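Is this the right way to post structure tokens for a design question? Let me know if I should format differently. Anyway, here goes:
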């Protein structure tokens, strides 16, 4: 229990530092970019994903990277940097999957697991050759790997050239730690595929321990829970700071819910007070602001009634996609527009990437690997489909407002006003599809956004 508390305190401290330079929505976007990632990431590529449009410095990048490693959102593996050198190079594997309970149903999980197994096959041969063993397919003993890891770490700290044996032992240890996460079983050491690469005669208690870091093994389900916990904690930290800043600037009123609650109502209450004077007090804001805010609140309030199951969602969404591909203009027909509203009322709260959405609800019965199928052309078609859906969704949701506002310039101003109000009241909680809505509003209003 004390150890868990210490780990939680460390996470909170790390999150507090990150909260100084990163918004909650940005952290969510980073997590979404790493969800169902089907390839091994170089350090440069991972830095590009983390730093996408955020202009972070190296120290800030490292803070985020260390947090992701700590909560096991990433596994760090090593390989020989280049032929003829004795240095190792870091690479990373994302452990974030849209379905952590049944990851075998996700093609990206199968792909990255196959990559790991191919690497392990090669590394087993390399390891045994370096150890002078005649049988190059023999499983690597875990106790030997632990010894090589200790040697590698000790020599690295003393700036002494690390032997080839210690290097290959450390490489095998990092691959081991990444691989047992992907096997996703409590009894992984009995798994036949595991025994193909590793021989483990440890006591049961030690079998749940990683080799390269000596930290406890963690399943994908536990990792997914860790990520959600971290995002919730980060949201509460940002909310607390907003409330603190609000109290410094405005002395009247207090949020309707406590910081500990971390609720959306408190966030909206703080944000509304902070920005009402700037937007809502304009002539347009006084006339239409309350109506726009009421539509936004309704739009971002989760549906509490019974929702359709995944098969029904797939049937409706894939049907709309076929309609869009054949006759995109018919999406605005009454029957289709009603389906779009019903579906997007649910989709807008889905915290998943576009790729995961497409695989789950549009192409979930394909025989070929989705990774191979998901080319730039198909990706563009799916994003165009989503933009078309959200354009219809926006115009239907705000139809009452635009029956009043018909002037071209006023419509453009109204769209800009709506985007600002969404950002100010919902920005911390926008999913990938929330940003699609904003893009759709910008397109309807002919507004350029960065």
């Amino acid at each position: 229990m004390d150890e868990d508390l210490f780990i939680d305190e460390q996470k909170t401290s790390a999150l507090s530092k990150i909260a100084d330079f990163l918004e909650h929505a940005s952290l969510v976007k980073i997590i979404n970019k790493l969800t169902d990632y089907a390839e091994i990431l170089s350090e440069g590529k991972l830095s590009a994903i983390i730093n996408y449009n955020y202009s972070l410095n190296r120290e800030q990048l490292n803070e985020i990277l260390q947090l992701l490693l700590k909560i096991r959102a990433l596994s760090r593996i090593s390989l020989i940097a280049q032929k003829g050198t004795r240095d190792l190079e870091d690479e990373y594997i994302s452990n974030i999957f849209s379905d952590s309970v049944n990851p075998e149903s996700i093609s990206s999980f199968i792909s990255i697991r196959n990559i790991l197994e191919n690497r392990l096959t090669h590394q087993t041969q390399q390891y045994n050759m370096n150890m002078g063993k005649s049988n190059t397919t023999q499983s690597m003993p875990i106790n030997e790997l632990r010894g090589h890891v200790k040697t590698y770490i000790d020599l690295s700290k003393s700036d002494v050239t690390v032997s080839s044996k210690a290097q290959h032992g450390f490489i095998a240890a990092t691959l081991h730690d990444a691989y047992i996460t992907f096997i996703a079983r409590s009894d992984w050491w009995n798994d036949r595929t595991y025994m193909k690469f590793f021989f483990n005669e440890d006591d049961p208690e030690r079998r749940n321990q990683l080799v390269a870091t000596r930290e406890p093994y963690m399943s994908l389900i536990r990792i997914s829970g860790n990520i959600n916990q971290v995002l919730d904690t980060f949201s509460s930290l940002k909310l607390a700071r907003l409330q603190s800043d609000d109290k410094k600037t405005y002395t009247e009123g207090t949020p309707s819910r406590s910081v500990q609650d971390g609720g959306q109502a408190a966030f909206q209450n703080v944000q509304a007070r902070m920005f009402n004077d700037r937007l809502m007090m304009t002539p347009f804001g006084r006339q239409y602001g309350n109506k726009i805010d009421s539509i936004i609140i309704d739009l971002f309030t989760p549906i509490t009634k019974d929702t359709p199951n995944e098969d029904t969602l797939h049937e409706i969404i894939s049907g709309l996609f076929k309609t869009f591909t054949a006759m995109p203009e018919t999406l605005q027909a009454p029957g289709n527009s009603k389906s779009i509203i019903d579906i997007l009322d649910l989709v807008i709260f889905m915290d998943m990437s576009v790729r995961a959405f497409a695989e789950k609800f549009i192409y979930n019965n394909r025989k070929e690997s989705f990774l191979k199928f998901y080319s730039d052309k198909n990706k563009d078609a799916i994003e165009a489909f989503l933009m078309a859906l959200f354009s219809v969704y926006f115009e239907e949701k705000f139809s009452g407002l635009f029956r009043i506002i018909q002037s071209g310039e006023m419509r453009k101003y109204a769209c800009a006003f709506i985007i600002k109000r969404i950002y100010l009241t919902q920005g911390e909680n926008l999913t990938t599809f929330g940003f699609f809505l904003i893009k759709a509003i910008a397109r309807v209003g002919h507004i350029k956004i960065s």
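Format looks fine. Someone answered above. Worth noting: Residues 1-7, 249-277 have pLDDT under 50 and may be disordered. The first helix runs from residue 2 to 18.
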